[in-house]
Fold these 4 entries.
Entry 1:
Amino acid sequence: MRSVALSPQQRRDAIRAMAEEPLDVLVIGGGVVGGGAALDAATRGLSVGLVEARDFASGTSSRSSKLIHGGLRYLEMLDFRLVAEALAERGLLIERLAPHLVKPVPFIYPLTHHVWERVYAGTGVLMYDSMAALSGRSRGVPHHTHLTRRGARKRMPALRKDALVGALHYYDGQVDDARHTMFLSRTAAAYGAHVASRTRVVDLVREGDRVVGAHIKDLESGETHEARAKQIINATGVWTDETQGMAGERGQFHVRASKGIHLVVPRDRIRGESGLILRTETSVLFVIPWGRHWIIGTTDTDWDLSKDHPAASAKDIDYLLEHVNRVLVEPLTHDDVEGVYAGLRPLLAGESDATSKLSREHAVSTATKGLVVIAGGKYTTYRVMAKDAVDAAVDAMAVQLDRKVPASCTEDVPLLGADGYEAMWNQRTALAARHGIGVGRIEHLLNRYGSLTLEVLDLIAERPDLGQALTGGDDYLRAEVVYGVTHEGARHLDDIIARRTRLSIETFDRGTGVAEEVAELMGEELGWSAEQREREVDHYVKRVEAERESQTMPDDETADAARKGAPDVVPVVER
């Protein structure tokens, strides 16, 4: 598949195309489900538009636990169908769809009771592995094993001796969620979809009892355009009810937001080579290897405040530290925390007061003519959700089309960067020698760009200074900033520091130390004036200050008020 760059020019062309030509399908929402739906529809031969009010994955889809997993705890809830579906998708992603982005990750499940818990938990993990093997697709990860206490502590010396009597060792999948979601939208564009970020739907267009389009505001230029479509797919996650409300009707279901926060700490603060999965009073807690860091999460609490910028409070942070410290030889403190991020899960509202008991399954509604609503679900099953949404759209517009629309084929459509990835991985030493870059750097690039790494290396060949690491963010090259603008749709400083890279959570300064350098590199590509660069840096610094303040607040209400203290991103004025 030919690579398509999400460049500034491509964005302008996409907005113009959506305004000029009626579409078969317009997808609202550039998260993982929206990107998946755009790809699904485009690969069926439909004309597709995808609009996102902010940046790709800027909401829930960049703030997950970074896991592609079946969900062991759903077995305990007897939700076998959801687990089997998720495990099948895990195998697809690791083996076929995105091997450059989704990798196996090991976990230790500590046992605290003799005999019965090993039988009980061991049976669950055996079922987990067996369901993956029986899915008809490759499991994609090694089989689980049983460990003694000594064996578990050999893999994880950080575990207190009295925190376990033995353990299970198993594997799941891990993903950089923001990059994977962006790759979905970019792959959809490669198959012909018109894709544009920073385009907000301000209203839906109705003719009689049917939704026939949307008014879309370009948040950079301030211009508003009308895009017409036979079917619109509402894939806006926690904003589902608000988008549905633009149609002037109540939906068949409602979405309830559940807040989950995560902490990021340096790898040397917890000695070990495997992740941990720990039981808490209400759910489970993960300690997840993440490059030179660990991710610790998550919480699961009701949230009815700002959906744009959910805030983590001191209470949330204390909760995670308290629970993880119960099993660690050397307890973590607030000073060990490099990054904190909070996200909202879009759960289907139910009878339970506890969000941890609400459904992680998804639902599709076609109650309003011309509008398909998809909500609920979990990150791992995004492809199934996208397929179901497009299926519903195709069924609803059957009389409007003069052709039969093929069934979904996305289980056989690798994302950009997947084809050729394995061969390039095998050639990584030769690539390093050819381009004068260390093998470790080449591996880093291959696991972020796959076979598109050659495009990044081409930038370095043209401008050798781009082969240098960012000052204060040496895990990333200067070329990655430029590539993020020219090929990955980044429009603002926040897009690069928080999502194209993960410096906002991987450094103690939350990325403020690279802000000036990143703004200079972005400004060269986007034609920013000196004033625009200053505004971008100022906005980012104020965002970090507001987040830090919110994380000292005692509860959600005060944390939300503090986070709102930072202004939203400013429009880019291009030359």
Note: DSSP finds 20 helices and 20 strands in the chain.
Entry 2:
Amino acid sequence: MTRKRRHWIVIAGSAVAIGCVAALAERTLTDALDSVLPDARRISNFNRPGTITLLSTDGQVIQKLGPATREKVEQDKMPLLVEQAFVAAEDRRFYYHNGLDIWGVSRALVTNLRQGSVREGASTITQQLARTVFLSQERTLPRKLKEAALAYKLERQLSKQQILEQYLNYVYLGSGAYGVADAAWVYFSKSPNQLTLPEAALIAGMPPAPSVYSPLVNQKIALERRAIVLKRMQQAGFISAKEADAARNSPLNLKPAIPKYFNSSAPFFTSWVAQQLPNLLTPEQLEVGGLKIHTSLNLAWQKQAQEVIRKYAPGNTEGSMVSIEPSTGEVRVMVGGKNFNASQFNRATQALRSPGSTFKLFPYAAAINAGIKPEDKVVDAKRCWRGYCPKNFGNKYLGSVALADALRYSLNTVAVQLLDKVGFDAVISMANNLGIGTTRPLGKYYPLAIGAYEQTVLDMTAAYAAVANRGIYMKPTPFEEIRGPDDEVIWNHRFEGYKGRRALDSDVADTMNWMLQRVVSSGTGVAASLGDRPVAGKTGTSEGARDLWFIGSIPQLTTAVWFGYDNNRKTSGGSGDAAWAWKQFMTKIQDNFEVQPFPPKPVMNRTFRPPGKTRSKPKNGSEDAAKDQDQTQGPPPRYIAPPGGPPLNENFEPMPFP
């Protein structure tokens, strides 16, 4: 082998070795950088800090909170015209660089030096996407170096098309619009595929300074910027000179709209959700955002309920409706008023209103629990209890009447009589077990029996739902599941939610449901009858018809309706208005439920023991019914009107009497 040949072999071998070392060094450096940089493939799950998406039971978006991209263009559905406009405006060499454009930096530097100001940016679309998703907007050298490294990684992990689509879905385009879909809607009330050339060019010109170039801020500057984009599209060969001239001379034709999902489609419900979220999530979780809240709301039912409240509220009264699934406590409907824009006061959760005769649930349940039977006779007659003299509606009295019929006709004197017979402690304990009076204590006053103590619609609905659930109380909740930024489950109602507790024995609950069915089939609640479908419910009207109630259940759903004035003045309606509205709502949604009966009326073998004595174990051997209760208490106090309560001898709860 000649010396010359050996010389070239050595050179070639050295070159290969140097190349291998260089490649290895580059690979090592790249791997080292990659290990400290975020995975670019996570970009598809990107959410800005503080973003929260509220979803209904069927996955519909109820509202998006925070700086969220409210609508995204699906993969491979981005219009070519829009892509071309942004590439021409922001990164004309997008398809030819690997994340960093050295020629673009040089060109921008020369242009800016000639103009004497910053007129052209040098960041590529890939760099802008990396900055938006993974970095801050601060102008520092370390941030720029990280941006460059991330852009390079993005180019290696994603295709050009994926990078461009993600950028167009996340870039801020002014006026609360994040992404092309949002901008098309905010400025033109269109979807991206409906945008014309001048509209696409206008939107594509905004990224460098969205608050300046927005046509809703300064139309003159927006038009100047649009002209620049059109010129660049022509230079890139995307459009002809004729198309550019026509687009440049076209008017703006703005048609502004509120960003999609900016306003809630169920604002009373979502305001309650916002109040409840801190009970489940930390401040840090709420701040980081990217949360998906799968709520309990049935959006279709919610819309039906809102329509019913607006249509059937008597006169110009306000109204509220709450629906709870008894077996889970999940709130399916919450209407807190006729018009959220007119008043944000939530009458379902914030308004304290007299429950009227709907409160009779508690003295009757306490009486059944104590051993009084539905068939037992009571005397309905004028009577006073230590200075308090309740009256029936129209001063009508039935004399000797079965307990079940007393509830069916909502006789006030009998409700107070039961309170006196079983004792204040028994009735208050029963109410507490059903979630009433736990935060605002109930006093030992005789008007308690017929609704003297104000309650919220939500709490009363939950109490009746527990009875429909055969005595198991479930705390009302608006949540089914909460997922984090990476779609991981943070909280699930089934596994981590309230498990429920026994509030009253199942045979007592079954007896109450049987009695409440008679209220609807042939009593004061007949306006709520659903024909062959069993309904258990109770009407309620406070003094002067200031509050009109109906709370009714089918086995799968409990719904309460309330009407009244915010200033508590008298209405011209009756509880039948609430019962009728309840029926109109249930008629619209009842096909979602199979017709199911309530459990049959049980045989009650309890022996009544007056207050102060412990009742004996029932003969039927029911474990639930065998739980003894100590009802020890002193003699009933003399009636003293509670603060804001009814004066002596006032007909506190006038009920319609058939």
Note: Residues 406 and 414 are 7 Å apart (CA to CA).
Entry 3:
Amino acid sequence: MPLPKPPSKLGSLVKASSTPATTEAVNVHPPVKARAASAKPSQARPAQKAQIAPMTASPVRDLLPATGPVGEVLVAAASPSENAKAPRKPAKRSATQAPEVSKLFMLDTNVLMHDPTSLFRFEEHDVYLPMVTLEELDGHKKGMSEVARNARQASRELDALVAGVEGSIETGIRLDHTGHREARGRLFFQTKAHEARLPEALPQGKADNQILAVLQALTLANPDRPVVLVSKDINMRVKARALGLHAEDYANDKTLDDADLLYSGVLPLPADFWEQQTQSVESWQQGGHTYYRLQGPLVSAMLVNQAVYWESPSATPLYARVKEIRASTAVLQVIRDYSHQKNGVWGVTARNREQNFALNLLLDPEVDFVTLTGQAGTGKTLLALAAGLHQVLEDRRYNEIIMTRVTVPVGEDIGYLPGTEEEKMSPWMGALDDNLEVLNQAGGASQGGEWGRAATQELIRSKIKIKSMNFMRGRTFLNKFVIIDEAQNLTPKQMKTLITRAGPGTKLICMGNIAQIDTPYLSEGSSGLTYVVDRFKGWKHSGHITLARGERSRLADYATEIL
């Protein structure tokens, strides 16, 4: 009987890959290499035969600690019994599994008091809390201020995390077991004293220096792992870097890294706009408005309720607003010209292009939320009050105007103020009085003499209510024209509280200058006004305009430029 033919090289490789030992070795390697070898067998044969033998030691195991939950998960995933069940499917990383090298972020107390949910903002990285941070958090939890409320909320979050843990917390607490699935790391508490050698010039009893001592000890104990201090205190970060330690600002609350990238609400059309749209543009009139339907790549840069304009010295300019976007098609509506005296709003006319866009948004009943930004003297408060008085007293669209602002002083506080809520808010509403004086003269009250001016002023005052922001929680405004002035000093949480007060038929206006922020720990990127401008852009019932040119006086404009 003749002997069978010897197996080919391909057959030997197939038989070798079907053994349990080789299966374990192949599956321990990253899935990318396994897929690459199976995709091109002709190219992978010589290299695969030489690589099968040394694959028994996994490089992933060598990088991770031998003990701990992460190491146990990887060893179990690479066991021969599980790999034999599905040898061709690469093991997937679970949602709770930490990466090979994750950072350890140590939080300062001011981070928790600024954002109580900051514990869950570090994705797959771990979080460490020194004992000094917990003591400072306990000392700030009393009171009715925003800082005290945030401290209490942070304490409740920590209590919920600790309550669901059985056994010791030295190995860390999973941050996702309370429902925050975006947090895939662990929370560690300081459970023992650390020995650190800080410079003798730094007082040892100060809380900031104690946190720096813990940071230095953790950095020395984890040479292969980045340990970073997260603090809102600039001096704290400077001291940490002076000691050779890593420190960063808490940037998760920042909407934008650069204020120049903030959505302006205005889009200039290219000079050859009409040449590009000669064949695809459609125009029609409906309800007293002119509409254009456009197509092409320019539509991808547009958002709903965004103002667009095209100007040429030899042709009629185009000022329009994006009303609808469908796929690669956009519908533009030509706006009303409020720069003409016949279209004046309570005697006020638009003095520039951006003011004209703003008045169209303020007077549109389909737009429920309007944000106005710009430097001092651009007319934000005057335009909002004129549009509110026109719609309350003439159109009867809203019942009254409610105006509020955050009470953050520029200089030293003058102490407690006597009187009712409205009387206490009167010193903060100097801008309201100044603009009402302008509107009284522009609205035609001077034609009736002194009596007509006084009667008009009394009528206007009866329709404007000044409210404090401290009593807004739980309220619902029905058919009101709400104006929030100096909104740049609000946090995103405070802004959410105010906007959610709006009931049916209410229009809300937020105004401010992000270059004039007086609230501590707030910047141009983390302001509540920046937050809502970025989040509401593109919604069909909201609009935003950045007023670019000052119209207060030539002195104010020149001072803004040179000072």
Note: The chain has a mean pLDDT of 77.
Entry 4:
Amino acid sequence: MSAVGRISGAWRQWRDGLEGVSLLGLIGLLSGAVAIGLITVMVGGAAADKPVMLAVLPLMLVTGFLFLYSREAFLLVVLLVRAGANPVFEETRLAAIGGLGGLLNALILVLAAIIIARDPKRVPRIAWMVWLPFIAVQALGLVYSPDKVQAVRLYLGQLSVVALFLVSFYLVREEADLNKMLKLVTWSSVPVALVTLIYIGLGKTAGSVDGFESAASRYGGPFPHANILAFYLVLSVGVIFYRWKSGLAGRGPLATATVVLYMLLLVGLLFATKTRSAWISVLFIFIVYGVFRERRYLIYLVIGGMLAMLIPEVRERVAGLAEGNQVVQYAKLNSFAWRKLLWADALSWMAKYRYFFGYGAESFIFHSSTFFSMAGGRSWGAHSAVVQVFFEYGVLGVAAYGWVYLSTARMLRPLLRVRFLLALIALSLLVSNFLVSLSDNMLSYLIYNWYFWLTMGAVCALSCRIAGAADPRQRRPWGIRPSRYRPPAAHGKPAHSEFPATLPRVSEFSATMPMSGWEGAR
């Protein structure tokens, strides 16, 4: 056998997991044992200062073996527990290696590379083009970044978001697969809700990022900032609302009561975050639904808004926007006025020749202590993804960032004709996400971005398949290229699919994956 053949065989054995493990695989496992021993020494040394580090080693072992056993099972388990288990990941963070969270991000990138390498043509060209301009601009910004170490870490996190968006095109081949993904997102909110309720009971507010969260009694649950929990809850409410109205969550009285009560619980937790932009996002989703589907929901929103204003904390947050809008000495600004001052200082400090390429990745927070008049010797985030992108990457970056949303909306458009409710909720979530990014550090909320763009990718995947199946002439402009894969006939009968022969169903695709956890979850 030639050297190329041996290397190819070794790659296939490693790619397919523990099934058919050979001598080469055994050597790999032994090498892993040595690596685990070295990690044990490192973790043992760190456990003296952080006792929670004692939990890192078993978690790393479980994560590693699950990854080897089944790529799809690994992804599903990670998505189920990652949001709710975020406190463990935060406590195990190390400055040098990033802790367990950094390892998980790396495994997500490796997982995406492995799955995409099986057949790159399964991802439509338009899906690649959603993110390619933006990540290319970000990569260019790394070259002239004033803080390259932090910029590279955040860039790898952004790549993991893109990876989940692309992997969703492998997992969703028909509507039943999309329903499983939405159910996964729904169940991932359960541990988040439980942790948040426990933290509220203990009086533990979100204050690890800045001191304002604790002072305002804003709750962030498992996340270090209340805004992250708020936007995650907006996504969860939107997904659950769609599953309820489409009948996917059940149609009986018990199922309806369970779904409605759980949504009310999440909305209650959303109020506890005191994030006004998230409140507006939820209102936007229900208003859009009320206008296009059920007008009575507009009446419900008016009644609900009047009842919400009876709550002192809600009334105080809403009334706070009318105070502190003038920048005078010793005046206390409200959050929006403070943001406007920050943006004005940043844009007036920028040199005109920097308008095209900006100052490089992570340059806003690096220079904020210099240009912000209320910095107080601290570094501040932009509190606006658009302002941050313009400051760091110039107009080129703003155009690429806007393209992410425009191209995603373009992919969702075919659903308006055949799955109107799904398209309506998905587009509402997409628009609200963009509007919120105008006034928040959306690029820094990694875990929320994981779930949001995985959901968007799953819906876009179904849209592409439906568009290609409904009209073969649309395959080329939508970039759905024929795959070389041909599913085997089952028991002498040709495999059936409602989609074209060039687009196999998930069950057929999973038949080629040894020990596939995703197929087992079906």
Note: Residues 175-202 form the longest helix (28 residues).
